[in-house]
Inverse folding.
């Protein structure tokens, strides 16, 4: 679980492979989620036709189903497993890179007089608006740093007291999600590894509405749109690299040969 830094910003540090603690699982739910993943991915990746038990793709789907069930067990406020699995399957299909904006079909809900608006219908409207914004970002700007987000190392008398400082800034990831690091960040330098990447990724977290909310909104579930700063030897698939740090003689420094991706802003 990422560590809270300040509102909307979290930090995670990875230095290797860590065991996952045991989580109670429901075999029936796992089979249901795996089947849902298969049906969803048929629509998103029609060229995948190998579905026998020995196919590596099936093994991966079963792993993702286990992970999804584990997450749902932890976040028991999510009421509908099916819709969660559908959204997760769509996200998995998009991980491979920047989707081709010209090949996507975006659908929006059609509203009728007298229609009962359920939570799923309103969520679909939100998904439509958000996907249109992602398409706009990917097609017009691409992905990378928009502004700020410079990384530097502040040395100290004791090497272990050195800090990694990230300037405030704005970025767009490969999916077209907008990432805002409003207040920058100052983090301790890692104690292990000699090469690490500083990364930024978009993250959503189900939480309760702020206690300042009034009326029926107070205490109801909400989604916090946040970002996670990562410091790890490798770059996660969904993360945007900001810098590569090298340690020599016990001192960390920014690798000047590493250039983070930047958004190509239109000329004014």
């Amino acid at each position: 679980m990422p560590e809270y830094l300040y509102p909307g910003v979290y930090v995670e540090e990875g230095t290797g492979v860590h065991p996952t603690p045991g989580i109670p699982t429901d075999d029936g739910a796992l089979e249901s989620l795996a089947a849902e993943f298969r049906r969803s991915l048929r629509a998103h990746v029609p060229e995948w036709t190998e579905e026998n038990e020995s196919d590596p793709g099936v093994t991966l789907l079963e792993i993702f189903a286990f992970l999804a069930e584990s997450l749902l067990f932890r976040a028991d406020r999510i009421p509908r497993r099916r819709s969660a699995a559908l959204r997760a399957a769509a996200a998995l299909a998009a991980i491979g890179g920047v989707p081709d904006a010209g090949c996507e079909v975006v659908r929006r809900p059609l509203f009728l007089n007298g229609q009962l608006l359920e939570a799923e219908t309103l969520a679909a409207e939100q998904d439509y608006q958000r996907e249109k914004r992602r398409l706009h970002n990917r097609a017009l700007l691409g992905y990378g740093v928009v502004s700020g987000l410079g990384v530097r190392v502040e040395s100290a008398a004791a090497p272990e007291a050195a800090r990694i400082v990230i300037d405030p800034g704005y970025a767009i990831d490969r999916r077209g999600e907008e990432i805002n690091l409003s207040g920058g960040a100052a983090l301790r330098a890692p104690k292990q590894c000699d090469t690490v990447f500083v990364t930024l990724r978009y993250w959503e977290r189900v939480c309760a509405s702020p206690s300042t909310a009034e009326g029926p909104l107070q205490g109801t579930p909400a989604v916090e749109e946040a970002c996670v700063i990562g410091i790890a030897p490798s770059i996660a698939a969904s993360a945007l690299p900001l810098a590569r740090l090298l340690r020599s003689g016990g001192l960390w420094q920014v690798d000047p040969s590493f250039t983070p991706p930047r958004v190509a802003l239109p000329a004014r």
